[in-house]
Amino acid sequence: MTHNARDGSTTDSWRSRGTSEPVSERSIEQVDAWWRAANYLSVGQIYLLDNPLLRRPLEAAHVKRRLLGHWGTAPGLNLTYAHLNRVIAERHQAAMFIAGPGHGGPAILASAYLDGTYSEIYPDVAETEAGLTRFFRQFSFPGGVPSHAAPETPGSIHEGGELGYVLSHAYGAAFDNPDLLVAAVVGDGEAETGPLATSWHSNKFIDPVQDGVVLPILHLNGYKIANPTVLARIPRSELESLLRGYGHEPFFVEGGFDREDPMEVHRRFAEVLDVVLDRIAAIKSRAAAGDTGRPVWPMIVLRTPKGWTCPEVIDGVRVEGTFHAHQVPLADARDTEEHTRILESWMRSYRPEELFDEHGAVVPLVRELAPLGEARMSATPHANGGLLRTELDLPAIDDAAVVVDAPGGRDAGATGVLGSWLTEVIRRNPTTFRIFAPDELASNRLQAVFEVTERQWNAETVPGDEHLARAGRVMEMLSEHQCQGWLEGYLLTGRHGLFTCYEAFIHIVDSMFNQHAKWLNGSRELPWRRPVASLNYLLTSHVWRQDHNGFSHQDPGFIDHVVNKKPDVIRVYLPFDANTLLAVSEHCLQSTDEINVIVAGKDQEPVWLGTDDARAHCARGLGILPFAGSERAGERPDLVMACAGDVPTLETLAAVSILRERIPELSVRVVNVVDLMRLMSEDQHPHGLSDAEYDSVFTTDRPVVFAYHGYPWLIHRLTYKRHGHDQLHVRGYLENGTTTTPFDMVMLNEIDRFSLVCDAIDRTPGLGERFAGLRQEMQDARVRARAHTREFGEDAPEITGWRWPAVG
């Protein structure tokens, strides 16, 4: 069932038009009027400060001083939007619109204004001449709105600032939305990006029964900023073969060249769109009746001139249909009388007097093309996913947790334990939660989820394949871009998910992370945007446990990248055993409007805390490990040994066990950090500690030896204002790596237990001279450990068999 396109009631979706009659001339006139109005508004946003309806002759003072924006893609977007409005209303079809071409904001804003949504959300931009003046003035203007389809843009989940992700976002929106049509306009410049070229394969991962439909509309307008586009300059037969090879049935609409009558283009587009939607309805009907074959989904190729309807020639240079129309065709519209007149003539060519009444309101001929209520693509709740989001039904972590009789008394693979818990998460949330992974789910030890689900897959299967099914909750494709894009689309339309990836290769989506973080920052400032589920990264197969992959797989730097963003939206968690990973994951899956980065190991490691202690420790974010230290009640410690991350914690505790045995009079405090942002001050991050809290844990003047999962200078950056910072010594990854054993890896970066003991001796006043012999023993132990790896190819038994003394 879906919302009725006219009155918001529900009705069956995916209807065929049911007639071979051509679209009525009245409908074609409405489409053309909408298109002209949207083009007029697009031009006005780029150029005008005043006189929005040209009630007076245009003057230089009416034109913006700084002309910013992009015109070239707007006519094609406006054309597509207008035609979709017609079929949504006629077929009662739930739909959303995603604009891939960069800087398509003027077009999307124009349509949101024409259907009334914009004025509903922003009452100060009323459907009056004054409101229209404000609408034009704000575009790409200080204190206004961006030139992309940003969070401020009604109906948008896709900014388009960075190109390549429109199809990934569209398919993410379609997953588990069986009645939804997602119209995704792919710019031909965008089509040259690697992520977009990969995302055509998303049609092999869509289930025609449980999922919605993505309708790709490849817009060939021929040019990028200054160059022709590849797909517009290859023979049509080659392009058609390419698109059929991707698994689509392409339908071509071409027109607008040599000032062709737009009405003919409208008729062709309307005819093709009806055929395409009838094809989709038939596919959905067959699938509902039990057809299990992979559909060949239709798509549209729309070829129109770049900047269609702008002046053909300016200053003797061809503009329409060339790259000159990409941004601002009339860059001197304010500075020269001739260009001001050209701009006025251009805008009057759309006949605004037919489109807006004497008060500045949109005339019925235009407005009546739009669906009503939430059926409007600019008002669909699918593009404001927080309106649709429901809380996950999360099981208690206790049933999956590892029972701990004594700290470190039992080993477990953290992600394997998490996988068991996620199995129940999937069972309880069969239509609102998915896991996304680039072919690494089993490698990252989360394969327990296959007890209750499969990998979604709608391409060919052969004997021997495992866990492939037409419908499933696991989405795996060997493209980090695709996984991230799918997840973003899924989250922004109201659902929940988890992205698991090798730590070193999450950098592939650095820029996508940037864009999503900026989106969340923007949406948080808009009361009408409701909170969406957080984007949760689980990074494993991490830097310290890459003994068979080697240096290429050793990079913890994504954390550094993440903490550059505004603190309101980013969180970094370093759980140090299975139970703390469960506690962190439970929290992250309940959070909203954040990006949570969780880094955890997959190999067998000691479990240090029971469930209750793990929850309490993770809620604090950092804290003293009472079982580990040797400090005496009521006395200040001589030394603080701090750690963040599973391997650094193991090495720190092994070092502390040596110190406790060999220097029993030394008072050592052990501090573990799970929530990295707790190290920041409270005025820098919502999770930050006050100075008083920080001082109480780390002291103000005692040496602190800190073993950290990633690059050590990040800890200094987070704590540089803290008291006692000059006493802080951080060990971490130093970009020393190779294919070697786990312990040799930590020795290469001097974060091993023996190096940490040496640091403790070197940095605690009075220990250097007294325990020079112990320090030498530690150096010798490193030599022996390295020699053992070189002789036997594995770590020494005293390393692999080490246990916390109480359970040794």
From TrEMBL:
Region Disordered, annotated ranges: 1-22
Xylulose 5-phosphate/Fructose 6-phosphate phosphoketolase N-terminal domain residues: 23-387
Cofactor(s) recorded in Swiss-Prot or TrEMBL: thiamine diphosphate
Residue ranges of coiled coil: none
Superkingdom per UniProt: Bacteria
Ranges annotated as biased composition (Polar residues): 7-22
Alphabetical list of InterPro entries matching this protein: Phosphoketolase, THDP-binding, Transketo_C/PFOR_II, Xul5P/Fru6P_PKetolase, Xul5P/Fru6P_PKetolase_C, Xul5P/Fru6P_PKetolase_CS, Xul5P/Fru6P_PKetolase_N, Xul5P/Fru6P_PKetolase_ThDP_BS
The keyword Lyase belongs to this UniProt entry's keyword annotation: yes
Matching PROSITE patterns: PHOSPHOKETOLASE_1 (PS60002), PHOSPHOKETOLASE_2 (PS60003)
EC class of the enzyme, as a word: lyase
Pfam families the record matches: XFP, XFP_C, XFP_N
Domain Xylulose 5-phosphate/Fructose 6-phosphate phosphoketolase C-terminal: 602-804
Keyword terms: Lyase, Thiamine pyrophosphate
EC number(s) given by UniProt: 4.1.2.-
Record-annotated membrane-spanning stretches: none
Keyword Transferase: no
Similarity field: Belongs to the XFP family.
UniProt-listed HAMAP family: Phosphoketolase
PANTHER family named among the record's database cross-references: PHOSPHOKETOLASE-RELATED
Official protein name in the record: Probable phosphoketolase
Taxonomic source organism: Plantibacter cousiniae (nom. nud.)
